[in-house]
Amino acid sequence: MAEPKLILEYVFDHERDHPDRVYLVQPYDGGRTVEYTWGQVVDQARRMAAHLRSAGIRDGDHIGLLSKNCAHFFIAELAIWMAGGTTVAIFPTEGPDTVRYVLEHSDAKLLFVGKLDDWPRQAPGVPEGMPRIALPLAPDTPFDRWDDIVARTKPIQGRVQRRPDDLAMIIYTSGSTGTPKGAMHAFRGVSVSAASIVASERYTPEDRLISYLPLAHVFERAFIESASFVSGSKVFFAETLDSFVQDVRRARPTLFISVPRLWVKFQHGVQHKMPQKKLDLLLKIPILNNIVRRKILDGLGLDQARLAGSGSAPIPHEVIEWYRRLGLNLMEGYAMTEDFAYSHVSRVNAHAPGYVGIPYPGVEVKISQDGEVLIKSPGQMVGYYKQPELTAESFDADGFFRTGDLGERNAQGLLKLTGRAKELFKTAKGKYVAPAPIENLLGESPLIEMSMVSGVGQPAAYALVLLSEEIRPTLGDPGVRERIERELGELLERVNAQVADYEQLKMLVVTSSPPTVENGLLTPTMKVKRAKVEASVADRLARWYAAKGPVVWD
Predict the structure, then answer these.
(1) Coil, helix or strand for 42?
(2) How much is the pLDDT for 1?
(3) Full domain range(s) for residue 360
(4) Which end of the chain offers a freer environment for a tag, N or C, measured as fewer CB atoms within 10 Å?
(5) Which of 118, 141, 162 is the last residue before a domain boundary?
(6) Nearest C-alpha neighbor of 420 from the set 536, 538, 313, 497
(7) What phi, psi does 78 have (nearest 5°)?
(8) How big is the chain by its Cα radius of gyration, in Å?
């Protein structure tokens, strides 16, 4: 069988065929932007690759990349590949302990330091003596700077060849269930997956993307960076969290991906300005329907998005339907770090409430006797770095990856996830509770931004909830607080009516301390670190369960 076209070959084709076409658009302070053409991107990558080789980097060496999303993340990755290396990206919000763990565990030989918000805190995590290179948006450091290096270095020539089995990247998981694991991805799997995503979603060079989800995470790496390497689509970057909406509106993306929490936050922001009842009424008036839709999507910067995607965690189906009513073609997908985000996606003609979609072309799926979802994907990892025993345990005898997710398939091949095996817990009633479906029910309410269902060994389960960002500042008003408490009680009744008796929640606990990436209770992709949250509230459980009423204010 012929070997696939590898991802660097697509990049060299773009350099040859349209060197003057703008590829990357990087914002800087003050609202200005700098555009990089394909010719400039590949020229800088060639020069940095030549420098890396002269600095002693050899085929197969691992090189760290610690940076927020920026144009030079993409260019640095290309340089690493051209130099014969393997990229090890680190989430830009990680603390020094995790930075050190990833760099040491991966055997990284060098570190690129890029755009960061908290470098002084992270710097002690870099092993002493490790060479470092500062990208153009890096904090002030004494390291050799990217621009100086490329200015003095001649580019390597020709079309650098990598073998299909060479490692392109090691992607460390975000650590929601413990120590990060390094999933090894070869050029074959990365290239086939990226090309298949581009073909399936019909990316073109005229498409506009915006890169803002962490590039150390497989979702962004596959659907934005790698897909753009293949398709030639134009990529914009977000400057800061405060400027995000303006950045999106500048880009006017035609394809846009996000995670459930952000989709919910965008929805709540709209509902805060236009109550849902008013919106429902306006959408029923033919003469106003399209005007209202366009105005809302224009405000989000998504008026030109022909396709939008949600991944990384479950999203309530009602949220998807809310966006579709506005005319946004929002589809949910399901995949993992271990299959390079190439697994399942919903379609206009293949979706149903509670289902995450159908397999991408070339993906095989089966359900084990225990109800576990097993996947065999063209994007499947080579294995976990330095963990052969865990690698062996992670695949069945037929080479299917054990996802750890529980699920079922319907006659049309749509996959429904019913829980995660490691998240199941028993209350004192002795039966297992799957938190994710209950959390999805809670997430349908505009009151709730985030929830976590727990209650190990307790008389009944409970849900720790974070109220929406628009509601939280108003709780000082006794009248508002009383109304919210009443509405939460009604929400609890509705949710309990939809689940088995042993899954019913005793109470909703309203937290006043939101979980964040900074306090260690969220992963960089905004998933709750359940064990850490449970440990942080352990000393308050007795008080919560002793409280009367369906709502407890923590």
Answers:
(1) helix
(2) 63
(3) 255-270+305-421
(4) N
(5) 162
(6) 313
(7) -60, -40
(8) 24
Q: Are 187 and 6 in contact (CB under 8 A)?
A: yes
At 380 the pLDDT is: 97
Distance CA 461, CA 80 (A): 49
What is the secondary structure of 354-381 as a DSSP string? Answer: TEEEEEPTT-EEEE-TTSEEEEE-TT--
Query: What are the structure tokens assigned to 514, written together?
Result: 């939101």
CA separation for the pair 371, 405 (Å, rounded): 8
DSSP letters spanning 229-245: HHH--EEEE---STTHH
DSSP-assigned letters across all residues of 93-152: T--HHHHHHHHHHTTEEEEEE-S-S-HHHHGGGSPTT--EEE-TTPPS-SSEEHHHHHHH
Residue holding tokens 């080479």? Answer: 399
Same domain assignment for residues 514 and 481: yes
Asked, for residue 149, whether it belongs to a domain, the answer is: yes
d(CA 49, CA 79): 5
C-alpha count within 13 angstroms, C-beta hemisphere, residue 90: 34
Profile the chain (554 residues) by mean pLDDT over runs of 10 residues: 90 98 91 94 98 96 97 98 98 93 97 96 95 96 96 97 97 74 97 97 97 94 98 95 87 93 86 85 85 90 92 83 90 94 91 89 94 95 96 94 92 87 80 85 88 88 90 89 92 91 91 83 80 86 89 90
pLDDT of residue 190: 98
Q: Where among 396, 421, 446 does a domain terminate?
A: 421
The span from the CA of 332 to the CA of 107, in Å, is 36
Q: Could you report how far apart the first and last alpha carbons of the chain are, in Å? A: 61
Q: Are 461 and 326 members of one domain?
A: no
If one counts every other C-beta atom within 10 angstroms of the C-beta of residue 229, the result is 26
Burial 371-382 (b: 16+ CB within 10 A, else e): ebbbbbbbbbbe
Distance of alpha carbon 11 from alpha carbon 184, whole angstroms: 22
Which residues pair with residue 65 across a beta bridge? 89, 112
CB 327 within 8 A of CB 297: yes
